Amino acid sequence: MAVTAPAVASAFADAIVARDIQAATALLHPEVDFRAMTPNRIWEGGAAGAEQALRKWLEDPDEEVHAVEATEPVTIEGTQRVGWLVRISDADGLHVFEQQAYMRERDGKVGWMRLMCSGFNKLPEEN
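Now predict its structure.
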């Protein structure tokens, strides 16, 4: 696997920030090696597993997504790190969570990804 070009990783993060799941999944290699860890679940699989995870995180009908903001990308010895901060609300109030994705390229797409989620952090109620 080659170093992920910042353009591929940045395009993926841009698609997440835009909440464009179709664009994000189009950047995944069909044989992507995908694993993610959230506080209550380990996600594994190829492109279909990655798409399922992304839809759950960004299209949950019980939550309203207020904003998705990119964090600064970094290259770490052949691996590109991108991230995003998500602000949501649900029946329990306002929350924020951050996800960091580590990626490597394969044939111009994301061929390997490891993703870690901070879990929901409740925000104080606005007055």
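The domain at 6-119 is CATH 3.10.450.50 (Nuclear Transport Factor 2; Chain: A,).
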